[in-house]
Design goal:
Strand order of the largest sheet: 5-6-7-4-8
Structural class: alpha/beta
Largest sheet: 5 strands, parallel
Number of strands: 8
Strand content: 5-15%
Distance between the termini: 73 Å
Length: about 475
């Protein structure tokens, strides 16, 4: 490309940026390159077929008008896929999904290995071009602290990451669930970093929100087929925060993608804040398929594991601040007192580091107690599941759980069913429609009637009140 052509291209990009706005430009045009100007045609390239389809469908006239403002003789814009063109890929190569993540770089070619963490150069191509969610370079297996609460989850994730293309898939899908801040995202991103390090497999990390965005964008641009084909060409699909997946059409597409990948022997790794059976918003078919793989719970962090995490974070901080030191008594205090999640532990170390560096003072126990007092939270009450309520109520009233879910209307079943619905409403955060669905697909008005019925009775019937209170204690202990 000559200097004059480069100057023209710079001016055209400036016009385009002014025309469509900064947000649209960085999302769709930042990676468009000028290949050649020939007679009345301008040849441009983009890194993915999805981008090509989107620009042709929505912005072709604007791109042409910006060129004509600079070169009136131009009457045609030819747009090609750069990755296919430069790598001489076959014409029938499977298209790739949209790259909608904002970036200041104008190309998808990987950076020099000296400026990236080991193994990330190969990731740049697959991750960026497929529109994956951002990855945190700190969240690797090397920085993950293993303890009793997460041993199985770590081992399963490591087995997935170490797999090679063509190997038989042992756990599919691998489903990891845990509360907030217990390390789910860390493990999933570690799988992605490690899986892509070899360059042999395509490993894509997506949050449920990003999956929804990509699918909706594909529908709007009428390129849904390309989106589906791209996802199903992935070797390892990693989905985080599945509990946020919403919408019937999106869930249906996720189910089809899940089935297609598993049936093709591709690996799927999923994380959520609850087990598959508790994802009431998901279709029964999806929950059944998720439960058919390896479901692993990451338990609450024990004190030994919390201490290990604290020491790991102090060591990481000391790599940049050599004089930073946290005495053992302070670490022991933090490990005993901060029990909620790993993020609170990391936040505590950051506070101590900031206080120590900004005030030029050593870390002491008194300082730690002052700085982290808001992180010392009371123990959370036990999270009660609807299945637990049904099991305890069935045992109390000598009926089966299937009786509670059935359509039977005999007195010995109706009252226990109403009590179970009442407890589900008062002891969980589930909505009336969700509770109804978990009780044999009943309407929410049936649940509301049961709740009001038991509320009225416990105020008058001492025996029933005692039974309900006894059930609550059994469930909360």
């Amino acid at each position: 490309m000559t200097n004059s052509e480069q100057d023209r291209w710079s001016r055209v990009k400036g016009r385009l940026r002014s025309t469509v706005g900064e947000d649209v430009y960085t999302s769709w045009f930042a990676r468009m390159d000028l290949e050649a100007v020939q007679d009345e045609s301008v040849h441009l390239s983009v890194p993915t077929r999805f981008l090509k389809s989107w620009i042709q469908a929505h912005y072709a006239e604007r791109v042409l008008s910006c060129w004509q403002a600079e070169m009136p003789e131009v009457h045609r814009i030819d747009l090609s896929v750069r990755s296919a063109m430069r790598c001489a890929a076959p014409a029938k190569e499977a298209p790739v999904a949209v790259e909608a993540r904002r970036t200041e770089r104008s190309d998808v070619r990987p950076m020099n290995n000296e400026s990236r963490a080991p193994g990330t150069a190969s990731l740049a191509t697959s991750h960026d071009a497929l529109g994956g969610s951002p990855l945190d370079p700190r969240l690797t297996f090397a920085s993950f602290v293993v303890g009793r609460a997460n041993t199985l989850a770590h081992a399963a994730a490591r087995q997935v990451a170490d797999g090679r293309r063509g190997d038989p898939v042992m756990f599919n899908p691998l489903y990891i669930h845990a509360g907030v801040g217990l390390g789910k995202t860390h493990l999933l991103q570690a799988v992605t970093w490690a899986g892509n390090a070899g360059g042999e497999r395509k490993v894509l990390y997506l949050t449920a929100e990003k999956f929804m965005y990509g699918f909706v964008a594909a529908l709007k641009s009428q390129t849904a087929l390309a989106f589906k084909e791209a996802l199903r060409g992935i070797d390892v699909l990693v989905i985080d925060d599945l509990q946020f997946l919403q919408g019937k059409s999106t869930q249906a597409e996720f189910c089809h993608t899940l089935n297609a990948l598993i049936d093709a022997g591709r690996q799927v790794v999923i994380a959520a804040d609850r087990p598959p059976s508790d994802l009431e918003s998901l279709d029964d078919r999806v929950r059944s398929r998720l439960a058919g793989g390896l479901v692993v719970e990451m338990a609450a962090l024990g004190e030994d594991l919390r201490l290990g995490i604290l020491k790991s974070r102090v060591a990481a901080a000391r790599a940049h601040h050599a004089s930073f030191d946290v005495p053992e008594p302070v670490l022991d205090y933090l490990a005993r007192s901060i029990t909620h999640n790993g993020r609170d532990l990391e936040g505590a170390i950051n506070r101590l580091l900031a206080h120590s560096k900004l005030n030029n003072q050593p870390v002491t126990l008194d300082m730690a107690e002052r700085e982290v007092r808001d992180l010392v939270r009371p123990q959370e009450p036990k999270r009660i599941k609807i299945e637990d309520i049904q099991r305890v109520v069935a045992r109390q009233y000598n009926v089966s759980r299937s009786d509670l879910l059935s359509s039977r209307r005999t007195a010995n079943v109706v009252r226990p069913r109403q009590v179970a619905m009442y407890l589900a409403k008062t002891l969980t955060l589930r909505s009336l429609p969700e509770i109804g669905r978990r009780f044999g697909g009943r309407d929410h008005t049936t649940v509301l009637h049961a709740v009001r019925k038991i509320e009225a009775l416990v105020g008058k019937d001492i025996a029933l009140n005692d039974e309900v209170e006894s059930l609550k204690r059994q469930l909360q202990d």
